[in-house]
Amino acid sequence: MSDRPSERDKYLLGSVLFLSLLIGGGTASGLYTDTLIEVAAIISAAAVFSQASGQRIPRSVLWLLILAVAVVILQIVPLPAAIISGLRPELLLADSGLVGETRFRFVSVGVGRTIECLLYLVAWAAFFLSVLRLRPEQVHALLPFFFMGVICNGLAGAIQYSLSDDIAIEGLLPFTINAGLFANQNHFAALLFVSIPFVVYYGLFRGYLLSGSLGLVTLLLLLLAAGSRAGVLIGLAITVLSIVFLSARSRTSGLSILAIFIGLSAYTIGAWTKIDADAIDPAFGRGEFARTTIEGIKENWATGVGFGNFQKAYQIYEKEEMIFKQYVNHAHNEYLEIAFEGGAISILLMALYFVMLFIALIKVRRDPLQKAAFLSVSFLLIHSLVDYPLRTEALAMTFAFMNAIIFHKGFAARLAQKNEMIEVDHNGGKLFVPIGTSS
């Protein structure tokens, strides 16, 4: 009877993950699909936390999340106007109509957008903490839900690219679908390449080498078809590292590994051709976005402009010759955007997360699933240097799921328990028994 709640929790959280991959590919603000996912994540988390669990949540992780939520809340709390006025340019002083004309002001220059970001963060944290409370085998059981979401996106992408190089689907979701089930082809590519370590894991450690190889080939071909330069490069790098990083402890033959590397060599030729065909960064590109964002960070480093307000504040620092019909909605560098919106405290929290992630790498070196999750997280963070993948619900929930695998304490406990067992012959087969116990 005690296992039934865990089974229900697995299906609840798995459904949230699958739902986010189906309808969470939009990048615009105020999408009802994003709100639906956030509500589902919070309700599911409440159900999980309503029951006792034998899994402990790391204190460092919990405190980091508490501080992150506190930073966002502080941006929508009225503060004395004298404090805010001395920390940022006059043009970016927030509207104080809600709290009095002169006495108080908000840190956020757009309170509504910051509240929207707060809900986004709370839903993300709730899902992440809920997965941490599951048993290791239940966490592993969430992978099929993730794979189903990836397959649905892959099928949608394959259909689109087989019909035309540029096909947009409107009316199905509150945003225009341009690649897979995503509004942005780069984010579709991000979902594909973060799936690669898990596909390699299934092929090397779960006995599905043939299906894993076919899945890997399909993902790489879809990455080429998607046309994302960063996605193609990262897809190639993450595939090589996944095979090298994970195959060291697998039973797969060296011949199979060699065949995979030969296939990757052919893929490299196609990838290079794709990248060489386009300019890496035009005059009005990511380099200019970064320079302008850094100017904004310098003048708002103490408090930031409020989460969700990049677009509104960026325009103040744009050069006149860089103003076109198209406008800049994101910095295309997640770290610069967070620093611009959150200020010095957000930079400190990012640094703490990276330290915790590095420490986690030392602890997860022996578990292949955690190593696969670490690779996916690492390359998603690398992709965030040139894009904003975590601004979509689909990739944010995927990111939460992968981080939960990395920081889950149950995997280390299970490995320690396995190390205390010894393999013995029993009726012609193999059996694990505790050390010191006779067969």
Automatic annotation (TrEMBL):
Q: Does the keyword Transmembrane apply?
A: yes
UniProt keyword annotation of Transcription present: no
Q: Which GO terms describe its cellular component?
A: membrane
All copies of the O-antigen ligase-related domain together span 215-349
Q: How does it sit in the membrane?
A: Multi-pass membrane protein
Q: Listed GO molecular functions?
A: ligase activity
Q: What keywords are annotated for this sequence in UniProt? A: Ligase, Membrane, Transmembrane, Transmembrane helix
Q: Which InterPro entries match?
A: O-antigen_ligase-rel_domated, WaaL-like
Q: Where would you find this protein in the cell?
A: Membrane
Per the UniProt record, which residue ranges are transmembrane?
12-30, 36-54, 61-84, 104-129, 141-161, 181-201, 232-248, 255-273, 338-360
What PANTHER family does the annotation carry? LIPOPOLYSACCHARIDE BIOSYNTHESIS PROTEIN PA4999-RELATED, TEICHURONIC ACID BIOSYNTHESIS PROTEIN TUAE
What protein name applies here? O-antigen ligase
